[in-house]
Amino acid sequence: MTGSSGASGPSGGTVNRLRPRRSCLAVPGSNPRFLEKAQGLPADQVFLDLEDACAPLAKEGARHTIVEALNEGDWGGKTRVVRVNDWTTHWTYRDVITVVEGAGQNLDCVMLPKVQDAQQVHALDLLLTQIEKTVGLQVGRIGIEAQLENARGLVNVDEIAAASPRLEALIFGPADFMASINMKTLVVGEQPPGYPADAYHYILMRILMAARAHDLQAIDGPYLQIRNVDGYREVARRAAALGFDGKWVLHPGQVEASNEIFSPSQEDYDHAELILDAYEYFTSEAGGRKGSAMIGDEMIDEASRKMALVVAGKGRAAGLTRTSEFEAPEA
Ligand code: GLV
Ligand code: MG
């Protein structure tokens, strides 16, 4: 997990953009039973959906159901997000106004799907600012998550990532994306038959690079075979291995897998903390002010320290505690 932990909102208040997102649980906004159940699941983030999990005729009612769920529900410290409809529909402005006027105080981010260029993010930013000013919310506190779901969005991903200080995460939307580029598979997240390598590698890396260049989180989208937890794990591991911060979960059975896969292992976490301690010791006066250090046969330098900081940061955020301590060598 990287990111500027203290991005400053337009009104000067400090906003924490570095929220945990190992598991991002999709909840249809029109289903009060699911909205209730989601509150008890150990997902880092929930997003209450007004877009594709919500039928057109149910959207109007779902806006109000979501407002009630945000205001009355007990979300237990989870990151609370609402996915609105994309700007090519006629629903977006009303989604944002109803939800933010009604429950802005209890909302962390708005997720914007099918983002194609920076203007679409600007438009949402401006609308949020007007609502915040009108109803007396801190201007700039509500963040934006941008979903990349088509070729145009991916081609413009750098300008999208730079479009607003409200941005917190870029999200890959594989289902819409595969349709957009004519990829030959109907199983979302699985490899298309006949291609000998990872067909998603370029897209995932492109999103990850834009995210990291702008201090945003990178999140992998859904895996639709909800009963196939092994399949989910495999796809999630692919994104985690590249450096993604988390993945969507559509089913309670996927939550635990995602939390585990996007947290460092205990062994890696312990090792990262050891590297940080060793580096600090050996570069200090007491340790001889060296530029590098050794742990056993491993040389530790400034670059290793940076890598260790990322792993240690993820481990601390996941609530891991150390099981080993650094011991300075005898003088
Ligand atoms: C998610 O919205 C997707 O299209 O995969
Ligand atoms: Mg989609």
How is this fold's topology laid out?
Elements: E1 23-28, H1 32-38, E2 45-49, H2 59-72, E3 79-83, H3 92-103, E4 109-112, H4 118-135, E5 143-148, H5 151-155, H6 157-161, E6 167-172, H7 174-181, H8 201-213, E7 217-220, H9 229-242, E8 246-249, H10 252-261, H11 266-283, E9 293-295, E10 298-300, H12 302-317
Parallel strand pairs: 1-2, 1-8, 2-3, 3-4, 4-5, 5-6, 6-7, 7-8
Antiparallel strand pairs: 9-10
Helix pairs in contact: 2-3, 3-4, 9-10, 11-12
The structure holds glyoxylic acid and magnesium ion.
The structural class is: alpha/beta
pLDDT average, as an integer?
A: 92
By CATH, the superfamily of the largest domain comes out as: Phosphoenolpyruvate-binding domains
Question: Percent range for helical residues?
Answer: 40-55%
Number of strands: 10
CATH architecture of the largest domain: Alpha-Beta Barrel
Order of helices and strands: EHEHEHEHEHHEHHEHEHHEEH
**Biggest beta sheet summary:** 8 strands, parallel, barrel
Residue runs with pLDDT of under 50 for 5 or more positions: 1-12
Question: How many domain units?
Answer: 2
Quaternary assembly: single chain
Distance between the termini: 37 Å
Q: How large a portion of the residues is in β-strands, by DSSP E?
A: 5-15%
What's the CATH first level of the largest domain?
Alpha Beta
GO molecular function: lyase activity
Organism: Streptomyces gossypii
Cofactor: Mg(2+)
Domain HpcH/HpaI aldolase/citrate lyase: 22-252
